[in-house]
Amino acid sequence: EIHTNEKEATEKEVTLHLLPGEQLLCEASTVLKCVQEDSCQRGIYGKLVCTDFKIAFLGDDESALESDETQFKNKIIGENDIALHCVDQIYGVFDEKKKTLFGQLKKYPEKLIIHCKDLRVFHFCLRYTKEEEVKRIVSGIIHHTLAPKLLKRLFLFSYASAVHSNTPTNPKNHTVMFDTLEDWCWELERTKGSMKYKAVSVNEGYKVCERLPAYFVVPAPLPEETVSRFQGHGVPIWCWSYHNGCALLKMSALPREQDDGILQTHKNFLDGIYRVIHRPPYEIVKTEDLSSNFLSLPDIQTAYSKFKQLFLIDNSTEFWDTDIKWFSLLESSSWLDIIRRCLKKAIEVIECLDAQNTNVLLVEENASDLCCLVSSLVQVMMDPHCRTRAGFQSLVQKEWVAGGHCFLDRCNHLRQSDKEEVPVFLLFLDCVWQLVHQHPPAFEFTETYLTVLSDSLYIPIFTTFFFNSPHQKEMNLGREGQDAHSTPLHLLTVWDWSVQFESRAQTLLQNPLYVEKPKLDKGQRKGTHLKHQRQLSLPLTQSKSSPKRGFFREETDHLIKNLLGKRISKLINYSDELQDSFREFYDSWHSKPADYHGLLLPHIEGPEVRVWAQRYLRWIPEAQILGGGAVAMTSRLVGMMEEVRSLQEKINERHHHQRALPAEAPSLLRSSARLSSLFPFALLQRRPSKPVLPTSGWKALGDEEDLARREDEFVDLGEV
User: What stretches of 19-164 adopt beta strand conformation (E)?
Assistant: First the structure.
């Protein structure tokens, strides 16, 4: 539970709620928060304040939402609050001209426009505000959101020091944090990988490498001193084991050197690893060099920068102006194509693990960006445990947090380098959304869960997404980073959703359509095999059975050349033979009914990869379908499930002579007629004052009498 301190506001009895450790920095009165209309003349008067945590607008909104419609309210970030880390760009309007604001200003704008990383757009008119207050609030907002800052100046530290709570973690939260040796041993046992791999503590205290976690897993025969030879570079690190014995591994590449002596040393080191593991039970390993044979980080950054501009809409006119060229703009951004390539790469890896019985080694410069992305997608598709909420959260902890993904740099929390800001984790969530959208019953969580998880990247009271590595977190928040006499810090993890949402709102994070794994009878268990049922019917892609040639035997030369910076012109991954086997594997899987507790592949053809409508369109009133969309269908399905559950309980009552308990369902979904297609976020938006179609569109439909005779037609923007 978050306890708030209250500061009395003088305007219309509006209260500014401050979190523990939060301080008010500057404020301005008589600010008009404009509605996103053409003229931007209508709005709400109030006070604009800036704290060391957020920008907040305190106004008297007469069109306040009904109590039933505010159940998904975030307890940390309100409707009119912007976390400082969530600010993307700030613009000023000078004489009707929009200009980007940064640094010291000589002239102050009459209107402030703030674009947020969660794609909200705020307009604040300062025309009626005192000049001194305008200077103070504009300068304060620019400085505290865009200026480079030190790690220790993050609000995270102020909050952790100020909050005093002994509230235990939610007992329903079974997320494995992967910060102890026991956690890694548990994961090895769960995936049946303990026969071939071992958890090591050679990096305890981060003596070997600050980039790696304190504990991780390597092949069992590998001597621990080998790990420390090149600070963890060139060492295969275990990610996950499949039930057929094959494993997914990752490796950070050895540094690129020009000196022949060092190159020979590196080659001898890799040969040594090969000799150690060249014996059963290891099979062939296929290498995937993601640094040279996949996406580049600048590609991802450029594509998302173009893509997000489609949704940062300043007014209705701008929305309709871009509507006519929507598809061309969407295609030119290449964001959906990047998602498709990520899903395709994951399926290629899965084909090696499942159909070819081959281990896969992912190689990247630091194994902390694309390795995290691909390995996580592979596990979501192959391991049904990762499609539960606790399993997915544990996966993020293992592959991203413990795996050393540089959240601090990639989210640009310190504003120190725009070039380092690349939305790799958001790309992963978008890829997972494609799977959730295509196979809803296979996931215990909903798209709303993914959306609020993406929003949580920018809330600096959680430690999960605000460090580059476990070592950096330990040095700044652990015992080493604290004074001997200081009180211990209260650290929150993003996985305790009760911090942000009430229990009623949390029901929207749980998928009511999730199909739980059925419990098999003893008779059924006897006939089961370790092999996936789908895999048994797939044609073999290898015409000849290859001998057990050891860990690196087949691709040792390719691996060494790639790791030492000697790129080969044609990589084996893109040969015609592999393309044929991939297509055969992909088509064969999709020709059969899906097993929601087995291997799960997405459709990756052009129309199947879609825009994540809930996240990207939720703040645009014109994009809403009132009473329609996926939420209306879900609402009706939940109603049917209630009836089935009620009938089942009546049957059980007759058999057991017990009183049936009334079934409780997510009450927020009961009245679909009052909901929007972008529920639960669109409830915070006013209905657009303009027609859903532009004037030209209405004329094309014919006269009023003809229009009245037509049936209502809804187009779900999620289908784009």
Answer: 24-34, 43-51, 54-59, 81-83, 87-94, 97-100, 111-116, 121-125
